[in-house]
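Subject: Sanity check before I submit

Could someone independently write out the structure tokens for this chain? I want to compare against mine line by line before I put it in a report. The sequence has 562 residues.
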Amino acid sequence: MLHRFHVPIDHIALPTKFTYPFCYTPHPLCLIASYEVQEYLKQQTQWKQELDAGKMFGVLVVRTADGQLGYLAAFSGILAGKNMHPFFVPPVYDLLQPDGFFKIEEEQISQLNARIDAMQTDEQYVRQKNILLQRERGVHKVLDDAKTAMREARLRREERRKEASLTPKGRLAPDEEAALIRESQFQKAEYKRLEKRLSAWLDASRSLTNEAEEKMACLRSERRQRSAALQRRLFDQFTLLNAKGERKSLYDIFIQDFEKIPPAGAGECAAPKLLQQAYLNGWQPIAMAEFWWGQSPKTEIRRQGNFYPACKGKCGPILSHMLVGLDVDDNPMENYHTIPQALPIVYEDKWLVVVDKPAGMLSVPGKTPDCVSVYNLMRQRYPNAEEPMMVHRLDMNTSGLLIVSKVKRVHEALQKQFEEHRVRKRYTALLEGTVPNDKGRITLPLCPDPHDRPRQLVHTIYGKEAITDYEVLCRRDGRTLIAFYPLTGRTHQLRVHAAHPLGLDCPIVGDELYGHKGSRLCLHAESLEFVHPITGKQMHLRRKIDFWLESWKNKENENEEM
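---
Independent answer below. Compare away.
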């Protein structure tokens, strides 16, 4: 389970702090360990099909009690139908123990499912349900026809009263009026009698299926209760350690600290498995990294060999407990010291201003109160401007043009232009890889990943429409400079459409969520076209960026740091 490095590592300096798991650059020792794990995976032909489908793996560099360095390896979920493989650390709790309570209770619940399925597909039950359905449709038609006849009769009575109002007397004779009232009362009573007879007839038909449905309802109730009890018992079996030796169950971690039930699969990812084994053996965690191996899932964007941060939905609460007692790196996303405190002004008048937002700056204030944002700087610069000021937003790591209004009616007018897709936006991006077509359109629906925000998923059921037109500007050195024209404004739309295999399959340079981390995300809002709400003038504003030069500079800086 503990692996020694196959290559000399004495020349590699150890990190001063443990990896911040939600945003990191893999330490050189993690790179070596990951390479050795990948070489091992290439040799396992019996797992080829499952590995080709894709799985997340992790490595943890540890120091043993005698000061020796080594590493642990783990996979997320199960591999080849098993939780236990000699090369990898064991799970926190083995769900697949043949004699364990989980397998036994799971079998009981499976038997309940089989009984429910058998009753639902029983030939006699299905036939009776179909007969009932046909009779219900027939009853609805008879009652609808009766209602139509009553409505027509009421219209005739109203027409007769209208005709009588035009006569010299101006109304119906008392006998005729009484007859019309009796007719209305009789029809209403007759309809109620018809409805009662048909309802009784349907109840008799339902009695043929009620007994089976009551039994199925009881079985479903038992299934819910047993599933809930099994889930709670399972959560209690997942007891997770931290560096201080403190234990917490999965249930307590989520309920006490985050006020929610643990999601399915919580505690089965690679990171918790790795830390648990280090703590159980008294080994000191040094650095950790997780990588994907195999094809990308249809909804997510994963590339073989790429490193990925731990998911915040499942692993966020767990790791917040398991890292207690370790000296962990600061979150690099909260380091705003390099962001300029001034914004370049591209256009300004007394109604609005257009700024060139640098990469790394928020459009609006985030969770960290002292972070720099376009809104904060604009509020300081224009203290008398009317709210709301921000007409639209850019992702933190995207640079480019942003419109800020000073007058509320200007904000409303510009917002309407955005909603009606009358604002033309052009983004430029540098992509990893070569895009074959010169022009095209990408239509991949997007929705948030509930377990790993702000990452987005491509989902045909839950995703919202997202449309991007593109035009290739230049191809050079295995990269593509491209212009994007988004027709919708979904979160991370351009980043996902660029990186997804069903999109361009070429992630944006520097995109750590969907590609490789770099000095910056090479995505820039280059131009905006809109109608000035006050003057009516067609505005065309542009601020170019040379990504080839930026990319070259960034590579030089990275080489100097190394």
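---
OP: Matches mine. For the report I'm noting this point. The chain is about 40% helix and 20% strand.
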